[in-house]
Amino acid sequence: MKLGCCYFPEHWPEEMWADDARRMREMGLSLVRIGEFAWSRIEPEPGRFDWGWLDRAIETLADAGLTIMLCTPTATPPKWLVDSMPDMVAIDEQGRPRGFGSRRHYCFSHQGYREQSRRITRALAERYGEHRAITAWQTDNEYGCHDTVLSFSDAAAEAFRAWCAARYGTVEALNTAWGNVFWSMEYRSFAEIDPPHLTVTEANPSHWLDYRRFASDQVVSFNAAQVAILRDLSPGRDVTHNFMGFFTEFDHHDVGRDLDVATWDSYPLGFLEQFWFSEEEKTAYLRQGHPDIAAFHHDLYRGCSDGRWGIIEQQPGPVNWARFNPAPLDGMVALWTLEAMAHGAEFVSYFRWRQAPFAQEQMHAGLLRPDSADAPAADEARMVADVIGEIGPQEIAKAKVALVFSYDAAWVYGIQPQGQSFRYLELVYEWYSALRRRGLDVDIVSVDAALDGYSAVFVPTLPNISPAWIKDIEELTCPILIGPRSGSKTHNLTIPEGLAPGELRKLVPITVTRVESLRDGVVGEGDGWTISRWIEEVETDLSPELALKDGRGVVFARDNIRYCAAWPDRSLLDLLVERIAGEAGLDLMDLPEGIRIRRTASHIFAFNYAAHDIDVSALGLGEPVVGSAHMAPAATVIWTIL
Amino acid sequence: MKLGCCYFPEHWPEEMWADDARRMREMGLSLVRIGEFAWSRIEPEPGRFDWGWLDRAIETLADAGLTIMLCTPTATPPKWLVDSMPDMVAIDEQGRPRGFGSRRHYCFSHQGYREQSRRITRALAERYGEHRAITAWQTDNEYGCHDTVLSFSDAAAEAFRAWCAARYGTVEALNTAWGNVFWSMEYRSFAEIDPPHLTVTEANPSHWLDYRRFASDQVVSFNAAQVAILRDLSPGRDVTHNFMGFFTEFDHHDVGRDLDVATWDSYPLGFLEQFWFSEEEKTAYLRQGHPDIAAFHHDLYRGCSDGRWGIIEQQPGPVNWARFNPAPLDGMVALWTLEAMAHGAEFVSYFRWRQAPFAQEQMHAGLLRPDSADAPAADEARMVADVIGEIGPQEIAKAKVALVFSYDAAWVYGIQPQGQSFRYLELVYEWYSALRRRGLDVDIVSVDAALDGYSAVFVPTLPNISPAWIKDIEELTCPILIGPRSGSKTHNLTIPEGLAPGELRKLVPITVTRVESLRDGVVGEGDGWTISRWIEEVETDLSPELALKDGRGVVFARDNIRYCAAWPDRSLLDLLVERIAGEAGLDLMDLPEGIRIRRTASHIFAFNYAAHDIDVSALGLGEPVVGSAHMAPAATVIWTIL
Amino acid sequence: MKLGCCYFPEHWPEEMWADDARRMREMGLSLVRIGEFAWSRIEPEPGRFDWGWLDRAIETLADAGLTIMLCTPTATPPKWLVDSMPDMVAIDEQGRPRGFGSRRHYCFSHQGYREQSRRITRALAERYGEHRAITAWQTDNEYGCHDTVLSFSDAAAEAFRAWCAARYGTVEALNTAWGNVFWSMEYRSFAEIDPPHLTVTEANPSHWLDYRRFASDQVVSFNAAQVAILRDLSPGRDVTHNFMGFFTEFDHHDVGRDLDVATWDSYPLGFLEQFWFSEEEKTAYLRQGHPDIAAFHHDLYRGCSDGRWGIIEQQPGPVNWARFNPAPLDGMVALWTLEAMAHGAEFVSYFRWRQAPFAQEQMHAGLLRPDSADAPAADEARMVADVIGEIGPQEIAKAKVALVFSYDAAWVYGIQPQGQSFRYLELVYEWYSALRRRGLDVDIVSVDAALDGYSAVFVPTLPNISPAWIKDIEELTCPILIGPRSGSKTHNLTIPEGLAPGELRKLVPITVTRVESLRDGVVGEGDGWTISRWIEEVETDLSPELALKDGRGVVFARDNIRYCAAWPDRSLLDLLVERIAGEAGLDLMDLPEGIRIRRTASHIFAFNYAAHDIDVSALGLGEPVVGSAHMAPAATVIWTIL
Ligand SMILES: [Zn+2]
Ligand SMILES: [Zn+2]
Ligand SMILES: [Zn+2]
């Protein structure tokens, strides 16, 4: 695994570049990402390119022996470009233009901006596409960041109408698919269709779902246009894009298909603070991040691009954008880096080389402080470089457990939660966490992924199930656990004929006749476990495998397939994981709270996410090759697989 | 009492209609409401009517022996109509148009849309006005739903200016009435007046109050225009409109005056979740609704239309629109239906016949599931039909207790709460609840209602009191309890000469010299009771009937009239109800928590809102004719009045 | 000290004026403020002035022996004026116009309105500038109230561009100063610059800081234009403007420089409710206000205008604008008034004479009730007038302790809090409170103020420190305590070369290498004290004076200067105040909770803010000249300094 960093030569005097490059190498880094937001320096005026500084920066880095990932700068079109076509900006759901002054101020559907995006990509690729040091490209930056996937501009409306026409052929077909008869919402032509915002009350959920799919497709085609140019003009280089954490606004499997390598931007402390974790978790893991945050994304994004992935932005210290911004414990940066290696990362690149003293991210730490002294992360990077040297390159094998993830599902529940605590990402994360707490390695896969070869398959929920997917599942013999609301919707977000679980009824003969969403604090009591948030009434000849004390069935099984008709608590998840592991012949571990395990083909890694010492000798993994079984907070320990 | 349902033939294949109608009859239903949102099917293109399907639907239902309530479809103008005059939509308080894509996308003040509303009403009335099966009409649907009474469009501004001119004659009169001198807000002509939104800080409360009155009047006249056409072209049929729960945006007494029958849409579980109830109440009554929600509205709306009323939409299972959507306990649908009967409903119609598998309300239960099987409510409807058969039609008598309700009051306190916990609806509801907890039947009446004949009168608060009302009250000899802030405002929301309680001082010689609103948790301690939220300083020669421990008077009485100068807690309300009942010769009952009682002319009903069994034998009402005195959760029991 | 009131003759029938004036005098008042919002009465139509009523009002008041403060009415331009140039209104951050219908509906940058402001000021000054009774002028009213300092109008954008050009000279200089290279935010000309709102994510903090400075400068120049006219046409009269509480949207030191007297509007109960105080404090001081609220502003605004200051609006009873509006305890109005005297006020004027029965502030108490009877505050005013007579005029001396306050700092932390609980005003207030709890008198001074002569100097935080300030500090020998984040930013809100604390490193040789913001509930434990919210990692050869139990240094000292590298709790502040007082030879008092002390040149005042009796005999101040050492709630006691 390579180490790297994100570097912005345009932020620093040219005199500093060579020494920066030298220090990168000294620190054990071999990859550098540049160019991300540099449009105003590359093309300071319409059509006038200033390549000089970038030529020199690339040479300097290359001369130091660094390989370079070059970015297209399309996340930050300069002011002159925006002024030349003011309608290129996105329009927010409230109808306001999202103007110049920060970044991502463009609408994915604007044809003029798409032309500009291709033009600047082509200009960069023509100049540097065959440069010896350029080994990879990043398209744009963090598609969708700051809520920029959805736009409600005229350009978007126009493109959406065309998308609908292409999808449905006739407006009658669309009216039927969406159920537009419901409130006299029928259209006479595609031209009558608007985006689903600023309606008096909620718009038709089918309308919203198609708008989300359309918006995702716009990201895909925007990206694909850059990729095509890069492949053409820069053959043999990897193309990537950097995904974000807990972010489902576009379909990353779809974008991933056009990439060679999926990368993501890993900020565990910020993610802990900003998402649904409890106050207790936010305090317990204040300076570590919750132990499954990074791993979850590693396994998710590894499934987005044929297994090749990396971290292009790794948090090296406090950040600037969360409500509160503590510093990582000593050792966490190394832990996060090594954990990525254990999950098969090709590289981990720190964001950023040196903390910038100006502008929006001046409070975001780097490997260097703004005064160029080493920040604490620098030594951790060096330490990791040593470990990499010691244990050598790591191969990873297919995991024994698969977990199915669907962006479409995230949209469905976002549009129609039916109970405000039904959060798709949280449900999936809880299931993933239940597996990881017992030491299992997991592949998070798309709905299209082949599932044969896995010892167990977990589907936290999948609202819209196709006959083809059922056929694939039918052929599996391993234990499969499928969660609530699965099969409850058609492809167009309507209720399937014969009710939920729709196509799934072929495998598990049950009918969900009624559902309840439950307010916080209301639970259904099982034997040592509870359900909350969501419970279904099931009609079936099966007798439930697990039921509430009041007799209501919760888990129903036929053959190798279980269906869980409620939102399970951690105890119920533990129970199900144990039963399934028993059936699948999977070894479970009893891990102390805060410890996580991950295996490569050759090594076993353990990570201590707790803020206190933990001795893991009892795991019986023998003598470590790196670290000690008596683990300090934020420690990593590595054993060879015997 | 008739049972019925809401049916949307346009949502289902024509082949299903006859069987649906047959099953309705089998289930004991005799009334069906149709046509509510069908404009796009009735008039698919401007001026081209497609009556065929509706003709056939009406015949099919009529042939099955059902009587029909037909609706005007004006809540959902089709897209082609909106596109033909885009300024017909309302403008929200933030200045944004409220566009097509859901429902209620029109401004009540738009003259063009008013013309369309009359045109489509006339077209329907001409075609079906004399049809044998059409026994009733519903105008539009749920006026004001989704916050649609207020609009800030140009059409509304124009209409408001005319309304002001009509009301005040001269702009000088308006300036004086509103106190516009205050911040140089004086107008030189009516043309200078704008709606009171988007001001730098709050607009003049008098301005707001008149805007609310104007907006309410616009609803009244919009409705009246449809009613006039229906009366003309469909003689002998009842005209109704369906009101909502906890909704005070227009004056329902005013709209009710133009109707034959008031109807309302009863969703007790959703209302519990969405309104001010405590966490404890929301949990205790999760699947029942708070025990006074339905009754409160029955008694309120019965007072809006000369006593004739019904439920046109009764919740039959989980709904889709609350934050959380649990299912009713078994028996609750029957309980709700029978409780409506006990309050004098002419009909209860379930919303809806069959759950729609598509569009916005696909998660809203019906009597049938989307797959046409019976939903749980179906059997409860059958059971209720049996009970109706057993005990026969119920007459109700005037209650012994009147509670005065004023929409104007709701607006006054909404505009000028003075303390953020002063909520008019909550105050009235608490007083109503205090009466119901002791087994009293209550009429909720308007300020104009004749009060003679009642044994006791409760006025939770009435800010603006006219001399005429005082004269009426003066003639009463029964005990009267009048709550805080009564008489504190003139008709224009200014402070009356001589201070609060204004005209009321003629009856109770007190002067409110100063008021306090109190933050949550701050109380004034009485002897076994407290006050909170609001307390007044009273200057008077009377000695208080009840005072705080610190000596501050809270209840002041002269002759038969008491004034309560604070927001009372439940204990103080109980104490006052007991004293007044003693004076009025009213029998109070000691009801277990969760039990409610209601009498018709011939029967006594008891309802168990608790989630556990309760034995009510101790009430000594003898042998029930329906049900058992050992009441299960959600049980109803009925005795004959001896 | 004079007493006075705010009077609106235009609100009352002319017949009442003479008696009102007579009663003011009887109550002990000698100053009356008028004219504040009277534009529509002064100039009812464009260019037509109606001076008659105002001439008569002024004569009536003058004849009664009252001196008059006359206001320019520019906070409330009439409707005809707004209609004549609709673009004069401010545009809010969301892009919406802030229209007519309340007050402050103008943009400070609109040239047309500036011309109108000068025109009406000149008209008033020409007519009354030399009137015998006019002794003072107030410009406008409460600049910035209702969030009106910032506007995003075209006029503001245009003015901002000019401001930038004047400040930076070249756009390249601006690009460099702001770090616009960061996200390709570079401008090619000043004309390309927009206000920093409606950006996709946060705009550049340097952009925001300059926008805030620009907006503050617009207030300064708007005010200065009125002042110039008044000085010209009304020589010898004091010019003032009324500031507000806890309000930092413009630089009051800058505005104050153009005034003769700073005044402020003191509403302690509303401020307690609306600001950051804990639930416990809000309950304990419900009817008193927190004991440091009024004093904090007295000392702050005294520092804004060369020591001359007064209260022009003193809360006399419940107000209308807080979430909850309780009444002051009996005695509080007198306490507040006498406390102002103890801090050197030239006058205290109650808002308002008589409660208005109409419009927005009808629930705001006055000295008289709307029915003209005395409100409770009237007697308290009389009592204060007596005390003033008894103890005579009070001189105040420079305090021994200085606390440095910076509006620029408030903007910096508002723009870039880095942790959401880092609130500048709260930090400063806590430090001020720590001093007051030990009986110290404090001068709150600007960054430019001369600090020599003080026995101790406290700088809660000062992000941007100039070499000149360092030089001034260097010359001081008294103990100085400087708080976290000081010196952490350059003048343009970037990180200084050599890191925080920037220039301060010359005095205290430390480097802040990393900072953490901490979520609520997370603390660092010291010995009997804690830190929270914010902590810095410090690199230094100094050994810390105080450290956390884990060894992390918190307080670092060299010579007479201490730096506190965290947000201290009250215990740590107490400890630091004790140490510094010891070093500075300051006497500390042990004051019971709720008691505050303040000295004039001749007297010592004690104020009981608690809601219960407190005996302060133990303070050993001897026999009071006013009041008793056994203090009732809201009591004031005064001793002569021996
Ligand atoms: Zn990033
Ligand atoms: Zn409805
Ligand atoms: Zn004011």
TrEMBL record, chains A, B, C:
Keyword Zinc found: yes
Keyword Metal-binding among UniProt keywords: yes
Binding site for substrate: R103, N141, W321
Catalytic reaction list: Hydrolysis of terminal non-reducing beta-D-galactose residues in beta-D-galactosides
Segments forming domain Beta-galactosidase trimerisation: 399-586
An example Gene Ontology molecular-function term: beta-galactosidase activity
Record-given protein name: Beta-galactosidase
Organism annotation: Erythrobacter longus
